[in-house]
Here is the input.
Amino acid sequence: MKYFPVGKLDYRLLEKLLKSSPINDPRVIVGPRIGEDAAVIDFGKKYLVAKTDPITFTTHRIGWYAVNVNANDIATMGATPKWFLATVLLPEGKTHAKLITQIFKDIIQSIQKLNITLCGGHTEISYKVDRPIVIGHMLGEVEKDKLVINANAKPGDDLLLTKGIAIEGTAIIAREKAAVIRKKLGNRFLKKTEAFIDQPGLSVVADALFANKAARIHAMHDPTEGGVATGIRELAQASGTGAVIDAEKIPYYEETEHICKLFNIQPLGLIASGALLIALDPKDTKEVIAILAKNGIVCTPIGKLTKKSEGLKLFKKDKLIKMPTFTVDEITKII
Here is the structure.
């Protein structure tokens, strides 16, 4: 019997399983699909957008991660995150008031910053759970003419990326491998990379909402597990396109490069919350970049979407090569 590795389920099996569940309610506009970040349900004048995502790679500020990661997926659909529910699973024999109080503090501070309401959830101390796990459930809403669906991206679209890649991976590794990083790269470097979750930050809510106001966006996707390479692959699968990406234009933070080199991991496959992929008509590219820049968000053109038959390619050192595939996130090599 073949066992799957840690990380996202093989997309081919997942796609097969999702297709086995028919959608009987016509109000479901976007159901479970590979490459779409959230579900969309018709609620009359507006669409309700719904998402759930667990936090499993880290326990540090886990409540903060749960809010922001789920809010990101709502925003990539063009929607405003509004309501949050949390399922908090806690370890037997290790749970105390200080631990659960800190998790709730992180959740509440995060939702207040994004003007989101905590409206429900569940908590329990669970048998055989060895560390806290928070499963977030986020709901949002969007005007019907502003909904963004990744299936609408098309060949010829420009592909943009906000901020830089592997922000989340950099922050997690800094926290989990602090002793090694302090010894090899110094305490100042460590403190800066630990703070990556706040600056440049993991939230792409502002990135997505500003972009969607500036132009008619065809698709938005926040790369998470498997890094920006997997994020591009998921967007292409959702839209039935290929892509050509210029490796030299992909924005990296110097600190991320140092950490990836230290631990011999590939930044393209490192968990990447904090960046946003945007597909749009090339005539709108300059306007979107300008609006984001005006609001303090760096946005870089990194390539174009192509016909599906052309596959996913990376232009690197004057050669066109296949986009690397990461079946598991690079962070699993060290954590």
